[in-house]
Amino acid sequence: MSHALIRRRRAVVSDGVGMFAGDTTAVSAQGARIVDADGRELIDFAGGIGVMNVGHCHPEVVAAISAQAQRLLHACIHVATYEPYVELCEALVRLLPHGGPTKAMLVNSGAEAVENAVKIARQATGRSAIVCFEGAFHGRTLLGMSLTAKSAYKRGCGPFAPEIYRVPFPSAFREGRSEDALVAEHLRRFEERFVLGPVPAEHVAAVIIEPVQGEGGFVVAPPDYLRGLAEICTRHGILLVLDEVQTGFCRTGRWAAFEHAGVVPDLSTWAKSMGGGLPIGAVLGRAEVMDAARPGTIGGTYGGNPVACAAALATLRVMEREDLNARAAEIGSMVRARFERLRQEHDVVGDVRGLGAMMAIELCHDRDPARPATEVTAAAVARCRAQGVLVITAGAFGNIIRVLSPLVISNAELERGLEVIGSSVADAAKELATP
Ligand SMILES: *Cc1c(COP(=O)(O)O)cnc(C)c1O
Q: 328, 251 in Cβ contact below 8 A?
């Protein structure tokens, strides 16, 4: 029973391990459906936070895991070279070239990928400062958390890592201006800061940015902004690190969200959907940048575990064969159309945005970005769960509903989920309306 399991959790699991979807439980899952501890089926719009792009328990991924588990469970890449690690790096640099010879290193999580990208960038440039963004999420290790913006995730955990400088992320909705108007000004001010302070360009090793902010609320960096940023970085000898942990591997309709902007980063970070459900991540980069890391400065005991590599290789094969990039684009346009309709019908829906199948709505009173409808959002997602649709929120104010469903979701499941989100938002807004 869900109730009993949650009671046992509360007794022994730290309260600090947040529960972002109420008392939801999971016993088994397949495709886009989860079965909870009461035997109830949920349509999954969360994908374990954007991890299940190929769907839960994809048979090919499960078979690869079990075959590898019988051959070699662990060796440690620093101790012995095994083929799955090398083969996965070959696949990654083939799918995601960084403008010339490209190399990779494997890790266990997104935060670890970010940590290692920063260490590589510092060694490659001989500089220490890192520029990151308001609204950013880069993980919960101490450096990852230092780069993360959301204060609710950081309270009481400092002091944070030094030499981190934060700049605004362009947001058409929040700033109430068109993208074109935003881009030039944000780029001008970005570069101006190197002169006005707080840090000269010659001290900056890297700029790290999510091409679409994930936890920050699916805010899409305008393509011209990313291109301008890349150009500024090149001019000042700064490395551009794109954090693709949430956007990567077909979510936005491409292998990398940066492909939409035609930008090639110096380094990039990956995890979440890469392992089809097993914990694995990667740092990719231009070969000479990746090789600037001295032996022994990056890596770890488990990074690129053989079973996780086999799962990732199977995951990439499924993504290629089933053309999940094309499917993500299809899902994205279905979701966008339904969300646009919802916005026209309800003035609590302030914004509809996203890229590919990474779509969200932002709920605000009278569509005013300064008045986040946090309670309406919480009530709406609770109503969704009660009706068998698992969705999660995003954004500093928790007023954004995001779609991260598996890309193997059927049209019927998707339509059902969108119907439930639509009626839940409408009912929650009505229930909480101030007379
Ligand atoms: C989730 C996420 C991370 C952190 O990944 P973990 O595997 O949770 O450590 C880093 N960056 C982005 C953009 C993310 O969405």
A: yes
Interval between CA 117 and ligand 1 midpoint (Å): 13
Ligand 1 pocket (Cβ < 6 Å) reads 109-111, 114, 137-139, 210, 214-215, 243, 245-246, 271-272
Q: How many other C-beta atoms lie within 10 A of the C-beta of residue 335?
A: 25
Residues designated as active site: 137, 243, 272
- Closest-lying ligand 1 atom to the alpha carbon of residue 136: 13
pLDDT band at 327 (very low <50, low <70, confident <90, very high): very high
Q: In which band, very low, low, confident or very high, does the pLDDT at 413 lie, cut at 50, 70 and 90?
A: very high
424 phi and psi, to 5 degrees? Answer: -70, -40
Each residue's pLDDT tens digit, 3-43? 999 999 999 999 999 999 999 999 999 999 999 999 999 99
Please give the distance, rounded to the nearest whole angstrom, from the Cα atom of residue 112 to the centre of ligand 1: 9
How much is the pLDDT for 198? 87
pLDDT at 435 over 60: no
Whether the predicted pLDDT of 434 surpasses 80: no
**pLDDT at residue 197, as a whole number:** 83
Domains of the chain, earliest start first: 2-54+323-431 (3.90.1150.10), 62-321 (3.40.640.10)
How many A from CA of 435 to the centre of ligand 1? 41
Enumerate the H helices of 197-284 as residue ranges: 223-236, 258-261
The reported pLDDT for the residue numbered 256 is 98
This prediction's pTM: 0.98
Atom number of ligand 1 nearest to Cα 281: 7
What distance in Å separates the CA atoms of residue 262 and residue 22, rounded to the nearest whole number?
39
**Would you say 215 and 149 are in contact if contact means Cβ atoms under 8 Å apart?**
no
How many angstroms does the Cα of residue 91 sit away from the middle of ligand 1? Answer: 22
Residue to mutate (ligand 1; options 133, 241, 245, 258; most atoms within 8 A of CB): 245
